Amino acid sequence: MQQNKSVTEFALLGLTQDTMRQKMVFIIFLIFYTGTLVGNLLIIVTIQFSRALGSPMYFFLFYLSFADTCFSTSIAPRLIVDALSAKKIISYNGCMMQVFALHLFGCMEIFVLILMAVDRYVAICKPLRYPTIMKHHVCIILIILAWIGSFIHSIAQIALALKLSFCGPNLIDHYCCDLQPLLKLACMDTYVINLLLVSNSGAICSSSFLLLMISYFVILRSLKNHSAEGRRKALSTCTSHIIVVILFFGPCIFMYTRPPTTFPIDKMVAVFYTIGTPFHNPIICTLRNKEVKNAMRKLWLVKITSENK
């Protein structure tokens, strides 16, 4: 990645400077990241190999778990390693790549959550037309469009980052590279770039959250026309989705829809957004979903049985 800045590397301040707390950060986030990998990979493998989970809802859940895994991986391993490092150094190119990955998979998660809401809307509000509308090739096209949209968003973020000039200070008061902490180090007027950041990332987060809340409100209202069993099943699924949406978009909106000011809870909000949400998503999606849990039992029971023979 070409760059003509005087700064060739950045130093990350991390979450804490206290030695004992750094060891706690290492242990806690190693557990969280391991749980994220195990939980999401378990969902991915189960959906991939279980015939019972062939509906569009699980097709999109597959990509949500994939995006969660990649999103967490773009941040967590470096945070874990840096927790025990005296110097937390990241190259300029490495910093730009982290910005790209963070926004690529974060935006992909947003689009997948929207597609999951669309799927639930069609399934509950247009049940007779559901097989016609949500065909497999249609779902594939939607996922491809989501990847394209995420890539365009990430390219826009990198374009903004590359416009920043760094002429001396290189200490990032954060545990990862993102545009907000980089704006504070830039040796230039960053008003326009911050405005573009808010109008890009902030607008995507806010408008997507509003769209999702409206769609789930319409879905929940339409449940009064369904049977008691249908309401129970749909309500359980939609509740899980709504919890995931709130947990993801709350921190996202907090971080990307405000001026470049610093608050004491910024890092904790960022931790919840980048580490906590990918960890909680598989728990929420599986513990409240009997079909996924049954498919997991059957799949691993068959695997264990075949290995014992």
Question: What attributes does this structure have?
Answer:
single chain, 309 residues, mainly alpha, Rhopdopsin 7-helix transmembrane proteins, three-stranded mixed sheet, 3 strands, globular
Counting helices, strands and paired strands, the structural category is mainly alpha
Whole-number mean pLDDT: 87
Going by CATH, the architecture would be Up-down Bundle
Instruction: Quickly count the domains.
Output: 1
**Morphology:** globular
- Poorly predicted regions: none
Task: Return Rg in Å.
Answer: 21 Å
- Order of strands across the main sheet: 2-1-3
End-to-end Cα distance, whole Å, is 53 Å
Q: CATH superfamily name?
A: Rhodopsin 7-helix transmembrane proteins
Strand element count: 3
Listing every helix as H and every strand as E from the N terminus to the C terminus, the arrangement reads EHHHEHHHEHHHHH
Helix content: over 70%
Q: Count of helical segments? A: 11
What is the level 1 CATH name? Mainly Alpha
Our estimate of the beta-strand percent is: under 5%
* Biggest sheet statistics: 3 strands, mixed
CATH fold description:
Rhopdopsin 7-helix transmembrane proteins
